């Protein structure tokens, strides 16, 4: 809780509200406006013609002309005593001193006014004094002079607050905290209790981090033999695979405080802030050692240095990274602070980070395979209220190829929400299937306006995908086809991709052929193609390019790859190959795609009747499953892998 104190202390001071400043400024404005520079204790107003009467009557002792537009009138002693003047003075709200004028008024043109006075004086033989004076509105002047400064200071304060506030949680006086680390601390006092039990699968990774737990729990065991305790471990893997969870579990198992922050938290507009945040973070962690510092998305600061020379802001990032390296080198083996960092792009990280004594351990956290998915489902199903005997985790794991741990957690939550929306008392199988569909494809949009022709085109397009993938040995087996629009797409086909580690050219080509089956069907049936195949084309083009330029699977280009795993060429504009090769690559990519398109067309021409039949069924039912296809095409001739496919007619 010590750290919490640090955070809350500034809040205890009475908060000075900026609104007061605004209020004072506005009131000041209004007051000055109403006063109109006439000074305090202003005399009653009169009109020029009335004044002329007073003057003619000889009641005026002195006139003072102010700023060439206003006249102050001082009456003679006798005149002051007159009833009419007493009355008008009595109207004045403010107390009047004998030195104040008795009347005031504004005249139009000075020349005219002077002439009038001179004429009257001459006619009546008066010797009334006419004086001239300038009056400054001191407060108004000060206000006007200070206004720009006040504005600039106000804007500056506002910006500072916004910059250091934001994610920081809105404590007051943030200007002075800008160099402080923004790490979130979990320790014995916070109830975040994560143990290895909460992390399903990831056996290898767990084993490796188990070692870290041991180091933290009894360091003597290792140091007594002369060993050095590692300072850092790098978790590498795609988002949502449980890297944060794993790091938290390490802290939970070792029962040590856990500082969690993201690499981007270090980055700020100001020079030197990142470095000072790093310093502060390590200082705090050392005070609480043994402790774990977890830096998510370390690539935000850990990118290889000096790679791009375009923006100056990089210097700041480099400083931050340098400070991080210095801190990691700086603390001795006995400080018991271990830094765990996570990234999904280990290839772009600065090599200096990976050197011995820094993040010398790299732990790979991959997308879960079918067994691991089952285990993750088991973890996340536990808190749900389920329909008895309906949920089979094997089945669920099979339905979710390519899902990350976070996706699975999301499916479980979504299923519960769907069940609740239906008004069910428990979560059932169908809720899970709906949740999976929704996460894969987005929300169903049943009320999207689609003309009958469009619907027909979509049905044939999807039927084309289904037919081609059915006919090809290596294409992913189909699970379900729908023409109900979902998210961005107008129709969709669900496949169950085989999870394989190496892919052969045949498999890639078959998949591309199936992906082009949609457009091919449009061509075969309507002799017309449409924009509906955009995402198919995108996928196919990328795949073809990868075959040629990355995997070296093209005969003409040969066994070359232009892939750079170090990420060094990221900012390069130059291609790593010559003009001729560039032309060759383009030609080969186009060649691959066109060949597969033609293959899909040939296949569909041959099975036009079945394609049509399938499309009609699809138009009628909107959603069809594998057994509908079997009715039309007969048993799929290839492989045993279909045994894995689960068909769920609804
Ligand atoms: P990452 O840090 O790799 O992006 P997280 O650790 O933040 O991913 O994972 C997000 C959520 O996904 C976790 O809070 C957890 O609910 C779930 N999750 C991910 N992987 C697993 C796993 N192996 N076991 C259990 N839950 C997991
Ligand atoms: Zn398509």
TrEMBL record:
<keyword id="KW-0812">Transmembrane</keyword>
<keyword id="KW-0862">Zinc</keyword>
<dbReference type="GO" id="GO:0005886">
    <property type="term" value="C:plasma membrane"/>
</dbReference>
<feature type="domain" description="AAA+ ATPase">
    <location>
        <begin position="229"/>
        <end position="369"/>
    </location>
</feature>
<dbReference type="GO" id="GO:0004222">
    <property type="term" value="F:metalloendopeptidase activity"/>
</dbReference>
<dbReference type="Pfam" id="PF00004">
    <property type="entry name" value="AAA"/>
</dbReference>
<dbReference type="GO" id="GO:0016887">
    <property type="term" value="F:ATP hydrolysis activity"/>
</dbReference>
<dbReference type="InterPro" id="IPR041569">
    <property type="entry name" value="AAA_lid_3"/>
</dbReference>
<keyword id="KW-0472">Membrane</keyword>
<dbReference type="InterPro" id="IPR027417">
    <property type="entry name" value="P-loop_NTPase"/>
</dbReference>
<dbReference type="InterPro" id="IPR011546">
    <property type="entry name" value="Pept_M41_FtsH_extracell"/>
</dbReference>
<feature type="binding site">
    <location>
        <position position="465"/>
    </location>
    <ligand>
        <name>Zn(2+)</name>
    </ligand>
</feature>
<dbReference type="GO" id="GO:0008270">
    <property type="term" value="F:zinc ion binding"/>
</dbReference>
<feature type="transmembrane region" description="Helical">
    <location>
        <begin position="138"/>
        <end position="159"/>
    </location>
</feature>
<comment type="similarity">
    <text>In the central section; belongs to the AAA ATPase family.</text>
</comment>
<dbReference type="Pfam" id="PF06480">
    <property type="entry name" value="FtsH_ext"/>
</dbReference>
<feature type="transmembrane region" description="Helical">
    <location>
        <begin position="20"/>
        <end position="40"/>
    </location>
</feature>
<dbReference type="GO" id="GO:0004176">
    <property type="term" value="F:ATP-dependent peptidase activity"/>
</dbReference>
<dbReference type="Pfam" id="PF01434">
    <property type="entry name" value="Peptidase_M41"/>
</dbReference>
<dbReference type="Pfam" id="PF17862">
    <property type="entry name" value="AAA_lid_3"/>
</dbReference>
<comment type="similarity">
    <text>In the C-terminal section; belongs to the peptidase M41 family.</text>
</comment>
<keyword id="KW-0067">ATP-binding</keyword>
<comment type="function">
    <text>Acts as a processive, ATP-dependent zinc metallopeptidase for both cytoplasmic and membrane proteins. Plays a role in the quality control of integral membrane proteins.</text>
</comment>
<dbReference type="InterPro" id="IPR037219">
    <property type="entry name" value="Peptidase_M41-like"/>
</dbReference>
<feature type="binding site">
    <location>
        <position position="461"/>
    </location>
    <ligand>
        <name>Zn(2+)</name>
    </ligand>
</feature>
<feature type="binding site">
    <location>
        <begin position="237"/>
        <end position="244"/>
    </location>
    <ligand>
        <name>ATP</name>
    </ligand>
</feature>
<dbReference type="InterPro" id="IPR050928">
    <property type="entry name" value="ATP-dep_Zn_Metalloprotease"/>
</dbReference>
<feature type="binding site">
    <location>
        <position position="536"/>
    </location>
    <ligand>
        <name>Zn(2+)</name>
    </ligand>
</feature>
<dbReference type="GO" id="GO:0006508">
    <property type="term" value="P:proteolysis"/>
</dbReference>
<keyword id="KW-1133">Transmembrane helix</keyword>
<dbReference type="GO" id="GO:0030163">
    <property type="term" value="P:protein catabolic process"/>
</dbReference>
<dbReference type="InterPro" id="IPR000642">
    <property type="entry name" value="Peptidase_M41"/>
</dbReference>
<dbReference type="InterPro" id="IPR005936">
    <property type="entry name" value="FtsH"/>
</dbReference>
<keyword id="KW-0378">Hydrolase</keyword>
<keyword id="KW-1003">Cell membrane</keyword>
<keyword id="KW-0479">Metal-binding</keyword>
<protein>
    <recommendedName>
        <fullName>ATP-dependent zinc metalloprotease FtsH</fullName>
        <ecNumber>3.4.24.-</ecNumber>
    </recommendedName>
</protein>
<keyword id="KW-0645">Protease</keyword>
<dbReference type="InterPro" id="IPR003593">
    <property type="entry name" value="AAA+_ATPase"/>
</dbReference>
<keyword id="KW-0547">Nucleotide-binding</keyword>
<comment type="subunit">
    <text>Homohexamer.</text>
</comment>
<dbReference type="GO" id="GO:0005524">
    <property type="term" value="F:ATP binding"/>
</dbReference>
């Amino acid at each position: 809780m010590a750290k919490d104190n640090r955070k809350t202390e500034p809040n205890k001071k009475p908060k000075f509200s900026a609104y007061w400043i605004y209020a004072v400024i506005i009131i000041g404005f209004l007051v000055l406006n109403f006063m109109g520079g006439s000074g305090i204790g202003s005399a009653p107003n009169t009109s020029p013609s009335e004044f002329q009467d007073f003057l003619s009557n000889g009641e005026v002792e002195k006139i003072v002309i102010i700023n060439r537009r206003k006249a102050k009138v001082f009456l003679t002693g006798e005149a002051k005593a007159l009833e009419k003047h007493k009355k008008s003075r009595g109207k004045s709200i403010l107390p009047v001193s004998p030195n104040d004028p008795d009347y005031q008024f504004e005249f139009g043109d000075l020349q005219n006014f002077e002439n009038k006075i001179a004429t009257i004086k001459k006619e009546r033989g008066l010797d009334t004094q006419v004086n001239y004076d300038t009056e400054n509105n001191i407060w108004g002047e000060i206000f006007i002079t200070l206004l720009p400064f006040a504005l600039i200071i106000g804007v500056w304060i506002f910006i500072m607050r916004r910059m250091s506030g934001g994610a920081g949680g809105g404590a007051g006086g943030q200007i002075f905290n800008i160099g402080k680390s923004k790490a979130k601390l979990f320790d014995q006092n916070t109830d975040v209790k994560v143990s290895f039990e909460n992390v399903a699968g990831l056996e290898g990774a767990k084993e490796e981090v188990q070692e870290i737990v041991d180091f933290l729990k009894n360091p003597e065991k290792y140091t007594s033999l002369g060993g050095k305790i590692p300072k850092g471990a790098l978790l590498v893997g795609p988002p949502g695979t449980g890297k944060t969870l794993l790091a938290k579990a390490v802290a939970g198992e070792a029962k040590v405080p856990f500082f969690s922050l993201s690499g981007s938290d270090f980055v700020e507009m100001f020079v030197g802030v990142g470095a000072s945040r790093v310093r502060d973070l390590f200082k705090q962690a050392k005070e609480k050692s043994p402790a774990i510092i977890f830096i998510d998305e370390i690539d935000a600061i850990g990118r290889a240095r000096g790679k791009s020379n375009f923006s100056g802001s990089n210097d700041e990032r480099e400083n931050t990274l340098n400070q991080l390296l210095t801190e990691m080198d700086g603390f001795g083996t006995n400080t018991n602070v271990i830094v765990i960092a996570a990234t999904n792009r280990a290839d772009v990280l600065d090599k200096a980070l990976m050197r011995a004594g820094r993040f010398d351990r790299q732990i790979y956290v991959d997308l879960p395979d079918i067994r691991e998915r089952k285990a993750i489902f088991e973890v996340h199903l536990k808190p749900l209220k389920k329909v008895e005997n309906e949920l089979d985790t094997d089945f669920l794991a099979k339905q979710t190829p390519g899902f990350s741990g976070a996706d699975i957690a999301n499916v479980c939550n979504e299923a519960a929400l769907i069940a609740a929306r239906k008004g069910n008392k428990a979560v059932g199988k169908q809720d899970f299937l709906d949740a999976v569909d929704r996460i894969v494809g987005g929300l169903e949009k049943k009320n999207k306006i689609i003309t009958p022709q469009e619907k027909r085109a979509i049905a044939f397009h999807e039927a084309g995908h289904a037919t081609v993938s059915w006919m090809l040995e290596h294409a992913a087996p189909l699970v379900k086809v729908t023409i109900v629009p979902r998210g961005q797409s107008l129709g969709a086909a669900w496949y169950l991709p085989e999870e394989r580690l190496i892919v052969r050219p045949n498999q890639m080509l078959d998949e591309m052929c199936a992906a082009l089956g949609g457009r091919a069907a449009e061509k075969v049936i309507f002799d017309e193609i449409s924009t509906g195949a955009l995402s198919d084309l995108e996928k196919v083009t990328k795949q073809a390019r990868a075959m040629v330029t990355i995997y070296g699977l093209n005969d003409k280009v040969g066994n070359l790859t232009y892939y750079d795993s170090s990420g060094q060429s990221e900012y390069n504009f130059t291609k790593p190959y010559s003009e001729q090769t560039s032309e060759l690559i383009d030609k080969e990519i186009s060649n691959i795609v066109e060949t597969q398109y033609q293959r899909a067309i040939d296949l569909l021409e041959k099975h036009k009747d079945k394609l049509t039949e399938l499309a009609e069924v699809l138009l009628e039912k909107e959603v069809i499953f594998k057994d509908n296809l079997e009715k039309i095409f007969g048993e799929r001739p290839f492989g045993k892998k279909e045994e894995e496919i689960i068909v769920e007619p609804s």
